[in-house]
Amino acid sequence: MAYVINDDCISCGACEAECPVEAISEGDGKYVINPELCTECGTCADVCPTGAPQANN
Predict the structure, then answer these.
(1) pTM for this structure?
(2) What sign does the CA torsion over 35, 40, 38, 15 have?
(3) Which domain holds residue 14?
(4) Model confidence at 29, in pLDDT bands (50, 70, 90)?
(5) Could you give the 3-state DSSP secondary structure of residue 14?
């Protein structure tokens, strides 16, 4: 399943810049991941300083 960004997001944009399929965009108060584009690569989680992106199990 696609990754999701939890409420720990500080809207720094690190994840958006690193997403290889451009599945991440700025949302209302935090970034969001388009589940139809997410390839579950985990790059967003690797670069996030707060660990906000998590696998949606």
Answers:
(1) 0.91
(2) positive
(3) 3-55
(4) very high
(5) helix
Residue 1's contacts (CB-CB under 8 Å, 6 or more residues apart) are 35, 40, 55, 56, 57
Measuring CA to CA, how many Å separate 31 from each of 9, 13, 46, 51?
Answer: 7, 8, 15, 13
Helix (H, G, I), strand (E, B) or coil at 48: coil
CA distance linking residue 24 with residue 20, whole number of Å: 10
What domain count does the chain have?
1
CATH of residue 36's domain is: 3.30.70.20
Average of per-residue pLDDT across 39-47: 97
How many residues in total does the chain contain? 57
